[in-house]
């Protein structure tokens, strides 16, 4: 963290512990996508990886309730 950052009064900075991705909602989204659509595959090329990641992302976008449930985990809210 730096002292040069100007943080508005209505925002609280909470530093994430190093090597602890669980509190980071984006990491939870990626983990869900890996677990459900991207793991245990053989990728044949870089373009294939991009295509399959885009396909997985589009599946997730079609399920907004899933995104909300991943972000609303009790431990992720700190309560």
UniProtKB/TrEMBL annotation:
Gene Ontology MF terms in the entry: nucleic acid binding
Tc1-like transposase DDE domain segment(s): 9-49
Pfam families: DDE_3 (PF13358)
Source organism of the structure: Sphingobium yanoikuyae ATCC 51230
Spans traversing the lipid bilayer: none
InterPro entries noted in UniProt: RNaseH_sf (IPR036397), Tc1-like_DDE_dom (IPR038717)
Protein name: Tc1-like transposase DDE domain-containing protein
């Amino acid at each position: 963290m730096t002292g040069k950052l100007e943080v508005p009064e209505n925002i609280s900075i909470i530093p994430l512990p190093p090597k602890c991705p669980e509190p980071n909602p984006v990491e939870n989204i990626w983990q869900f996508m890996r677990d459900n659509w991207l793991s245990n595959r053989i990728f044949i090329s870089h373009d294939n990886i991009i295509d399959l990641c885009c396909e997985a992302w589009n599946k997730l976008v079609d399920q907004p309730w899933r995104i909300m449930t991943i972000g609303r985990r009790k431990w992720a809210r700190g309560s």
